[in-house]
Each structure stands twice: as C-alpha cells, then as structure tokens.
Amino acid sequence: MSDNDFIITDDEIEVEDTEKKETDETVEKTEVQSVEATEESEDNNEYEKVCFICHRPESVTGKMVDLPNNITVCPDCMQKSFDAMTSGQIDYSKLMNIPGVQILNMTDLENTVPKRQKIKKKKDTAKKTELNIRDIPAPHKIKAQLDEYVVGQEYAKKAMSVAVYNHYKRVATDTMDDIEIEKSNMLMIGPTGCGKTYLVKTLAKLLDVPLAITDATSLTEAGYIGDDIESVVSKLLAAADNDVEKAERGIIFIDEIDKIAKKKNSSQRDVSGESVQQGMLKLLEGSEVEVPVGANSKNAMVPLTTVNTKNILFICGGAFPDLEEIIKERLSHNNSIGFNADLKDKYDHDKNILEKVTVEDLRNFGMIPEFIGRLPIIFTLKGLDAEMLVKILREPKNAILKQYQKLLTLDEVKLEFDDDALMSIAEKAMKKDTGARALRAIIEEFMLDIMYEIPKDDNIGQVTITRAYIEGTGGPIITLRSQEVHRIATNQGAVPS
User: Fold this and answer.
1) In terms of DSSP bridges, do strands 304-308 and 288-292 run parallel, antiparallel, or are they unpaired?
2) What is the pLDDT of residues 70-88, one digit of tens each?
3) Percentage of the chain surpassing pLDDT 90?
4) What is the DSSP letter of 212?
5) Strands 211-215 and 477-480
C-alpha cells in the first residue's frame, strides 16, 4: 500500500448515509408541500369567490377585491364603502384620539359570519359536456324499469316515460336548429297512496338526475311568512351538490299542488293560493332565478347564484279532493234534459270518474288558467283495489313482504304468507282508505310480536302467516327445525303423510 492511498472507515460511511437520508426526507417534504399547495389552488380555482358583504358570486359582480384573511369584496360594495366614508360627516382620522375606540380587526369578522357555502364555477361553453341522445333510454325501456318497482298505473307510467324522453331530447337538441321544442311539464292527479311520489322517486333514480321533492303547502307569496317560491329551485341546487349546470337538467316534483288552489269566498289576500300560482308561472315556463346556496331564505348570510329553469322538468301532483264531485256535476248537467237524460246517481259508483277530468274542471276547482296552460301533460292515476294491493305486497323488487323475509333470513328463519292472509291485509287496507300507505302500518302491527319472539328460540325454522292470525282469531303456524319431515315419493306415486 502506498502513502497516497487512503482508507474509508465505517464512521464516515454512516455519516454519508445519514446525510443522504436527510436530503431525501427534505426533498420528499418539499414535494408533499408542493402537491398540497397545488391541490389547494385547484380546489380554490374550482369554486367562485363570493362577496363578503352582498354574498353575490364573482360571475355576477365581476373581479373581486382580495383583502387579508381570505376576505373578498365586490367592486360595488367597495365603492359604496368609499362613498360612505368620503361623503359622510364623520372624520375618521379623529377616531384614533377618542379613548375606548379600537381599529377594526379583520380577523374578528371570521367568527361573526357563519360558514360560507361554496359555489362551483360554471364550465366554459366550449368544454361543456353535451347530453348525448343515444344515452337517453327509450320510453319502452323507462316503462319496463318502472314496472319492476310500481304495480299497475299503466297509463301513468307510459305518459311519464314519453314525457321524460321528449324532455331530455329537447335538452340535448336545444341549439340544433331554429325549431324550438316546448317544455313538457306534467300534472298528476290521483287519490292519496296511489303512488305519485313513488313514481317520481323511482324515475329520478333510474335516470340518475338530481331530484328535488317539495311540498306546496308551505309556499307563500314573497314577503310573507313561509318559503319563497324560489326555494324549490334552491332544494334542487342542494340535491345537485351546488352544481348549477347539473341542477339545470334536474327534475322538481311539487307535491300537494291542489293546496294552492284559489280560495273561494275569501275577503283576505290569498297569499298561499292564487298568488303562489302566479309566482310559479315564470318558474314553469323558464327564467333565470337568483336563489340562495345552502339556505331557503335570501335573508340568510349565504351567497346567491343564478339558475336557469328553462331545462328543468316540473312534475306537479295532488289528490284534488272534491274534484270528483265537480266532474259528476258537469257530466250530469250536460245530460240532464230530455227523455234520454241520465239518472243523477249514474256516476256515483264510477271508480274511473277522475279519467274524465278536463281543464274546465280544474279551473272550477281553483287553478288559474295560466297555471294549467304551463302543464300541458295532464294524466290521472287510478285508485287501488284489493287485487292491486296484493300485487303491491308481492311483486315489486322492494316489496314489503320481501323486506320482512330478508330480515328473518338473517335469523335463518323462513317467512311465508298464505294467499288468504294477503287478501285479508288488502281488505283491511281498503277500509282505511289511505292507499298503499296502509299496508305497511297493518303489517308492522301484526309482525311486531313475531319479530320480538323469533330471536328467543333458535329451533324455529319457518313461520307461516295465516288469515286467522291477521283477523285475530288464531296464530301463525310455527315449524321447528326438528319437526321438518322430508317427503319421499313412492313407486306408486303416493306420498306418505
């Protein structure tokens, strides 16, 4: 070994390794920080800036003025603040010398203002995702999917399938040529419990579009106690996760629409009747509405955004009580003169009397003609009879009986229902006169003891519900696991008992 040669010791190698690890860790930390910073900037770029004072988004007010502590103010409010300070009689320079007066601290404002809702920026028209006509299911496919969940109401399902298909074709071909297709809003008329709300819920789930279900009973004219008419649009915006572009293709279902009928013989101002119908005219036809984000009231300290209701499908539904009497009166009045006149009680027992409804009958009920004119598709739903109630118990994908059978399957118990027991349940539901809603109430009542007692005994293998148990004259048939007898067919074809 020469004098110029040198030896590397283990201590030097360890020092070099530690230095290398430290440099690698610092590089990783800086990379993580840069990634986090880019993610935060992307999130901020995705949402609009909102004015701290008037709560309007940047797309409405223009370029915002950034202040410390992430506070943004629109140019209008900033200019008003300067005008108030310059034209006012107070000399703000002298406030510094007054004892007990402190300078406004911007950090204190964050605690006084509730958590702000974020508004997603509207995408550019060039990058806007267009709705493809080929992706829209055909009417027969929509109806076939509805058949899996809803029993009966064939005409209503067909009318809804065609109307929805035409509506989304209209949205997809909005700017195709000069021919503009009118919007096909719907009005559903049917007794309570016949499946109006359930039809709309199932339809929105199948189409994968945002749906807002609201009640017309709480709507009042602007300025009065209650929900504003624009609140129905703000509910749709919330269902679309504050995405305006997605909400403008959604569905709004307004239930209990018959409750805003024009009041008869009323000397007071009709703030929850005819006034609401008049206020809803612009929504149904299509207009740009300013709605609060994350609240039902414009007075709340939340930002406002603009939603265009041109491509929003409105479906209205109501039971319209006493409408049958109006239809009977019209029909009997038209045929009450001459030798061939009909008897007065001819239409008293007609179960399909609602199918004969006309626009004139709805006007006599209290709906204004302008409102009815914006609902071109009017169809009725039939009342449920005993046979339809039995089908509702059995056939749909999420039928009530299937739900209870699944619950007991988890306890390894088989649940069966006799045909007579199902008919008895349907007869009891018919007496309550609340439609399909009565079925669950009846089943909950007699299944309570069974669901309570079965987990006590692990030997129970099967429970059969009988008509006697439903009517309270007997009990269910309970089969233990040890009592199950496997029947074997003999050569003669006889089966031993």
Assistant:
1) antiparallel
2) 888 888 888 888 877 777 6
3) 11
4) E
5) unpaired
Tokens linked to 239:
């269902």
Q: Tell me if 50 sits within 8 A of 56, measured CB to CB.
A: yes
- What integer pLDDT is reported at residue 122 of this predicted model? 57
HEC-encoded secondary structure of 48-116: CCECCCCCCEHHHHCCCEEECCCEEECHHHHHHHHHHHHHCCCCHHHHHHCCCCCCCCHHHHHHHCCCC
Kindly report the average pLDDT of the chain as a whole number.
77
Q: In degrees rounded to 5, what are phi and psi of residue 197?
A: -65, -40
The helices-and-strands tally (H runs, E runs) of the chain is 19, 12
Where does the pLDDT of residue 488 fall: very low under 50, low under 70, confident under 90, or very high at 90 and above? very low
DSSP output for 467-480: HHHHHTSS--EEEE
Beta-sheet strands, E only, within 414-476: 414-417, 460-465
Question: What CA dihedral angle connects 222, 225, 230 and 233, to 10 degrees?
Answer: 180
Amino acid making up residue 66: D
Q: Distance of CA 294 to CAs 123, 152, 311, Å? A: 21, 38, 22
The structure's pTM equals 0.68
Name the token pair of 476. Answer: 């269910």
| Domains, the chain, with CATH or none | 133-380 (3.40.50.300), 386-483 (1.10.8.60)
Asked if residue 407 lies in contact with residue 375, where contact means CB atoms within 8 angstroms, the answer is no
pLDDT tens digit sequence for 447-459: 898 889 888 888 8
pLDDT surpassing 60 at residue 110:
no
Please give the pLDDT value at position 35: 45
Question: Which residue type does 176 have?
Answer: M
Bridge pairing between strands 377-380 and 71-73: unpaired
- Taking Cα atoms as reference points, which of 289, 296, 470 lies closest to residue 390? 470
Spatial distance between the Cα atoms of 206 and 237, rounded to a whole number of angstroms: 19
